[in-house]
Amino acid sequence: MRKRTPHAAARRPTRPALTRTALTQTAAARIAAALAVALALSWSPAAHAACTDPAAPSVNWRRCFLDGRDFAGADLTGAMLREATFSRSVMKDARLREVDAYRAKFLSARLPGADLSGARLIEADLTRADLSAAILAGADLRNAKLVGTDLRRANLSGARLEGADLRNAELGGATWIDGKRVCAEGSVGQCG
User: Fold this and answer.
1) What pTM was estimated for this model as a whole?
2) Per-10-residue mean pLDDT for the chain, 192 residues long?
3) Distance, CA of 170 to CA of 173 (rounded, Å)
4) What is the C-alpha to C-alpha distance for residues 86 and 67, in angstroms, rounded to an integer?
């Protein structure tokens, strides 16, 4: 075992003594850096969605709660509706062409005659929604939830339905994804 000599402490490098001003400046710099990091981490596109903006083409309603509202006949062409909720909303004859409604919720919403051509509805929840006579031509409905949805007389030409849940969906008179076949009256859950 080695003994410590009084001269061992003298050989260690020492830090220069910081003045009170230098300590204050160092602390201020660290706080400013921490605030900048916190601000950068807290920023998200949802913070820029103006949920109170009126219905208009290309409106940004990302992650907005718009349940029970009346948007009948509204033009929302190209709108950002990602993860927004429209449960029990009325959107009769609304123009929703090319909207991005990824994971949006339209539970029990009324959209008869709505134009959703080219809409991105991946993983959207349209459970018990009324989409009778709606235009869904070219819409992307992959993994969408369409349980109990009224799709009678809807136009599904060119729509993508891979992984979509159509349990109890009413499809009578709907134009199927091939654009040629019309589902038989009384078709439920699959185009017969």
Assistant:
1) 0.74
2) 56 58 66 61 51 96 97 98 98 98 98 98 98 98 98 98 97 96 96 91
3) 9
4) 4
